[in-house]
């Protein structure tokens, strides 16, 4: 059973959503896109393409793709040299420190050309360079890939206040305004369910908007 309550609520909570470390990862295998199309998809849910910044994250992605989902084709991750720069950067703007390039890659081939990076699970998670954009349906067939999105986990509950005199969900009774009210927003309880709803996802309670252990049909 898996808890998805710390993942953004607009991301489908189904078999293809996994939690690792500080992030939720959505494995998108139902369509192939070029790099920009994949990034746009992740951005639409408030995330980005997976940032495989360490050997642990790379291993997690490779292991899930191969051993949980039984896939072996490479997937887009959020790394590129857009503008033809010899320097590759992650989608969040951070520099490249950890690398896992395939030995067959010639990084100089990307200088002066836009190159985007994919992770190859059949090669132990090694990275490959690829053209970023497909300008025709034929190129999308050749260059399009499935991909993994990454989303920041959100807390189970959050506090908000109408006054700056409120700290950590507690109203400061010394604040000048007597009408100051601390508002507590309760999150759904931790969700666990042994059903595998596939791409359909779980139903939600109409009143609380919390997930329930029933599949959409």
From TrEMBL:
UniProt cross-references to Pfam families, sorted A to Z: Lectin_C
SUPFAM superfamilies in the cross-refs: C-type lectin-like (SSF56436)
SMART domains (alphabetical): CLECT
Highest taxon listed in the record's lineage: Eukaryota
C-type lectin domain sequence ranges: 20-132
Family matches, as InterPro entries: C-type_lectin-like, C-type_lectin-like/link_sf, Ca-Dep_Lectins_ImmuneDev, CTDL_fold
PANTHER family from the UniProt entry: C-TYPE LECTIN DOMAIN-CONTAINING PROTEIN, LITHOSTATHINE
Name this polypeptide is given: C-type lectin domain-containing protein
Lineage start: Eukaryota, Metazoa, Spiralia, Lophotrochozoa, Mollusca
